[in-house]
Design a protein that fits this description.
8-stranded mixed β-sheet; globular
């Protein structure tokens, strides 16, 4: 193994500062890409789809669970997939292990759902075995996967609704799926984004101050004002880490 040079603490800090410039540029580029996603045209979903859920039949609208946005990940757990019936696809399983607590997404009016073609009895067994109980998981019964480009490969489709009307807003698949799993990766692919003031979003999009909506995963109360102590702490942190150009990182 050909290792890098061994240097002093001062030299190491200098090397890190040099690389940090590129990391900041990458962060800005990622933010700009997310801003472009928020300006993507929407595709109306005219077809009706039916899924099997743990409590019976569900429509695509049902998957929103009353929220405004929906992300559906097409997982491969079904006959013919390596690991069946004990396991789902190894790659999809690795992804499921990375899924953050969905309650934080829910606080941004967004629902995450996994979908595959395995029966619900098998899905329930798999979730219990693998520790995925927090992930809503439905069974595809029709052409949903083929219609949204995930019949032969995994992928995340994002949707938004206006009343009962549903629109497809984005798709992330192939290597793009490697970065998925955090609250931020999910929100950044949606039409509304993180819904924070610093974001470059179209006029009229919901936005509020960053950090203030965060909470412990057992303490979210819809419509409740932020904890004033947390507001003070986050204000101090935001000021400390604010860039010279006035944007938070």
């Amino acid at each position: 193994m050909n290792t890098p040079p061994i240097v002093s603490p001062r030299e190491w800090e200098a090397a890190r500062e040099q690389l940090l410039v590129k990391e900041k540029a990458q962060t800005r580029a990622r933010d700009a890409l997310a801003a472009e996603r928020r300006r993507m045209p929407w595709m109306a979903v005219e077809k009706s789809y039916v899924f099997d859920g743990p409590n019976g039949k569900m429509s695509l609208l049902d998957l929103f669970a009353g929220r405004r946005q929906l992300i559906v990940y097409r997982a491969f757990f079904e006959p013919g997939v390596h690991g069946w019936p004990e396991h789902a696809c190894i790659g999809c399983s690795l992804g499921a292990d990375q899924v953050s607590n969905p309650v934080h997404l829910n606080a941004r009016d967004t629902t995450l759902v996994y979908a595959s073609r395995a029966p619900q009895t098998d899905i329930a067994r798999l979730k219990a075995r693998m520790g995925w109980d927090r992930i809503p998981w439905v069974t595809i019964t029709d052409s949903f996967d083929a219609d949204f480009g995930v019949d032969e490969w995994h992928g995340h489709n994002a949707f938004i609704r206006d009343g009962d009307r549903i629109f497809r807003t984005y798709l992330i698949n192939t290597r793009g799926d490697e970065a998925m799993g955090t609250v931020w990766s999910y929100l950044d692919m949606t039409a509304l984004g993180r819904q924070e003031e610093w974001e470059d979003s179209p006029k009229g999009y919901p936005q509020e101050r960053p950090y203030k909506w965060w909470n412990w995963n057992d303490s979210y109360v819809p419509g409740a004002a932020p904890d004033p102590k947390w507001v003070a702490v986050s204000d101090a942190g935001e000021e400390a880490f604010r860039n010279k150009d006035g944007a938070t990182t």
